[in-house]
Design brief:
Blueprint: H1 27-32, E1 43-50, E2 67-68, H2 70-83, E3 87-93, H3 110-121, E4 126-131, E5 144-146, E6 149-151, H4 152-169, E7 173-176, H5 183-193, E8 200-207, H6 214-219, H7 239-252, E9 256-260, H8 266-275, E10 280-284, H9 286-297, H10 303-317, E11 321-324, H11 327-337
Parallel strand pairs: 1-2, 1-3, 1-11, 3-4, 4-7, 7-8, 8-9, 9-10, 10-11
Antiparallel strand pairs: 5-6
Helix pairs in contact: 2-3, 3-4, 4-5, 7-8, 8-10
Amino acid sequence: MKVSRGFEPVADLPRPRYRPRRLRRTAALRALVRETTIDTDRLVQPLFVREDPRTDAAIPSMPGISRLTIDEAASAVEELAALGVPAVILFGLPTEKDPLGHGAYDEHGVVQEALRAIKRAAPEVVVMSDVCLCEYTEHGHCGVVRDGRVDNDASVELLEKIALSQARAGADIVAPSAMMDGQVAAIRAALDRHGFEGTAILAYAAKHASAFYAPFREAADSKPGFGDRRTYQTDPANLRESLREIALDVEEGADIVMVKPALAYLDVIRAARERFDTPLAAYSVSGEYSLIKAAAERGWVDERSIVEETMTAIRRAGADLILTYHAKDVARWRRERHA
């Protein structure tokens, strides 16, 4: 009996006409035909800014991310700009909280002062500012609480004040995230009425009531003191509802709309991209960051490879820009690759 010593091709076997592997043979070929790329000029780095320098800087659930003083935030933005990251979004930690979150719209509040400092240090950087109350209220909700519920219209009045104070301080883009009905229209009207027609609005249009926000709530000290936020954030199970929310914000004057979180909502990003021409952002949130960090620290995954793959997935789904805690890392990796 003859024993085969290896593969023996059949002479008359049809050869494939199309060979996709031809363009995968080398890294250069793969790069030449790559459909989706991650450019640093599409990334936004979130920053936590603390008003009281004595506040603990460390965020245990978010390794590599810290609560910064105002001066540290300005220096961090200069470093990000040098790496090619063009934009940041600011979240404030005030010294004091109260039922109406006065620190959020104080002309000399922590975010307002950080905006001024950053614009002095790096005027070319696009600075976005979160427009919400959760970090500033004793109860931790995103609006005014009356009789145990969040009052939508009273909350919108305060969101207008927050956005105006941030625009006066130099924000290029204000980003309402409270998910109050009518917030974008009210903020747009207030900005225009006070001469800030050039200040853009990034609407947290499809912000889902997600479990992925837990590390952020530790970082920003913004966990609700009672109940949850499901009465105003979008139900994670509802795609059509998310698209209605986006449509409303576009109609109300949003310049950019956002889906949040990103990875568990790639279908929402894709559906939004197919339906709307408005620039589309996706927020790769704290839980996504922390899960990757935790697995990488244990050696279970390669952090750089996982981050680049997930960022590619978000862009491939249709996002024009990505808010991510990995923005600085991605920019640094790009620089190292081309050094």
